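[audit] Reproducing an earlier prediction to check determinism. Same input, same settings, fresh worker. If the C-alpha cells differ from the archived copy the diff job will pick it up downstream; this log only records the rerun itself.
[audit] input (346 residues):
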Amino acid sequence: MHAQPASEQPPFISLTDSVVRTEVKDQAQSPTCWVFGTNSLFESDLIKKYNLRLDLSEMFIARYAYIDKAKKYVATKGKTYFAGGGQFHDVIRVVNDYGMVPEEVYRGKPDKTGRHDHTKLDTAMSRLGRKFIKQGKIQLDAKDIQQINDTLDKYLGKVPASFWYDMKQYTPRSFADKLIHFKNDYVEVMSFSNLPMYTKCLLDDKFNWAGDSLYNITLDDMQKLVDTALKNGWSVGWEGDVTGQGFSSFSGFASLNNTTHSYDEERLQNYITEATERDHMLHLVGIGKDESKQKWYHMKNSWGSWANNNGYLFMSEEYFKLKTVIMMINKAALPKYLKEKLNISQ
C-alpha cells in the first residue's frame, strides 16, 4: 500500500497486522465522526466475535445523543456542550439506553440527497436549546421533548417503532439486545502525566458533556495495547488531532519530521494549550512497516473514499505518540497485565 505526502516520494508500507472491517462511509457535512468511528469499531468487533456483518446506523445514535445532550444542557443552565459532536462513550450510552438499528432502517437522510448535511439541523437545535434556557427551564417536559423530536424528525426522519431485518421483526431495543448485545464491554483510555495512573480520571474537555471518566495509563502501555490488539485481530477507536501540521487526508499520510520528543511533557502541554485538539475520530485497523522498518498505523477514515488511499491513511508512530488523545477498545483485547493493573476482571 502506498501513501503520498506532498512533495515527497511515498514510502512503500507493508501491512503486518490488519483486521477485518466494513466499507468506508462519508460523514459529509455532519460533525459525527465520533459515531462513524465508533460504529466502525463495533462492526469489526461483531465480525470477529460472532461472524456477524452489520451496517449500523450512525444517525440513530446522533439523534438520541442530541436528546440526551439537550437534557443535560438545560439541567446545567446552558453550561455543557450542546452541538453535533460527541465521544465514544456517547455511542455506548445510546445503544444501552435506546437500542440500535441497521443503516437501511434509519439513514438519517429524509431528503434523499444521499449526503449528510447537518448545517440546518445543528442551527435549529441550538436555537431550541437557547429558547429553553431563556424560558428558565432546568428540566424538559413532555412538550419540550416533543419539540426536539419534531426537529429531529424534520432533518433526520422518523425512527420506526419496529422493523424487519433478515426476515425477523425487531424494535431498536430488541435489535441491540439480540445482535449487538454488549453492556459494559468497552473501555476508554488516555495518557496524561498530570493524572493518577491506572485509575479512572475525568478529562477536562468540552466534548465530555456527560462527565464520563477514562482510564489513565502510560504512553508505553497505550502503544502496547494497540499493538497487542491488532496482532490478535482486534481493532481500536482512535481520537486525536487531525488539524495540525503533518496530517493530510488527501495524501493519505499523518506524519511529523522525525524529530526527538519528550512525549509525556509535550503531550500534556500541547493539550493544555490546545496545540493538540480533539477534533476527529478514526478507526485503527492495522500496522505496517516501511522500507526503513519504521512503524505506521493504518487508519480508516469517514470522509469518503475519494482520496489517494480510498478513505484510509497511514499514521506514523511519532504522530500517534504525540497526537493521540483518547482510544476505545473491547476489554477482551486488553493485554492480561494491563487488565490486572486496571483491576478489570472481564
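[audit] rerun output stored. Observation attached for the diff report: Residues 14-342 form a domain with the Cathepsin B; Chain A fold (CATH 3.90.70.10).
[audit] end
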